Amino acid sequence: MIFKIGFRKDGGGISNIFEGPNAIDFSQDEYRVYGEMFDKIKQRIMEVNGLSTLYFTAPTFVARTVGDLDWKPQDDHDEYW
User: Fold this and answer.
1) CA 51 to CA 9: how far, in whole Å?
2) Number of domains in the chain
3) What share of the chain has pLDDT > 70, as a percent?
4) Can you give the pLDDT at residue 81?
5) Is residue 1 part of a domain?
6) Is 36 part of any domain?
7) For residue range 42-68, what is the model confidence (pLDDT) as tens digits?
8) Of 80, 79, 78, nearest to 11 (Cα)?
9) 24, 25, 71, 77: least CB-packed within 10 angstroms?
10) What 8-state DSSP symbol labels residue 20?
11) 46: domain range?
């Protein structure tokens, strides 16, 4: 069984990207790119920390920060980002 769990946080709050009104119909190519991105992130974390093994647990949050170095969390979920 494959569980599709993923969330997006934007101005509208937190939404599940696989189910409900905000679901995204990912193509096979998009899934491949997503997987490759996680592999690269994992390899870099291992490299920087001198690890030979690293396991991600669910949920794993990946975020890209843009711009404001003075940004502060607005709610509890922002701590993850």
Assistant:
1) 30
2) 1
3) 74
4) 46
5) no
6) yes
7) 899 899 999 999 988 766 666 666 667
8) 78
9) 25
10) S
11) 7-79
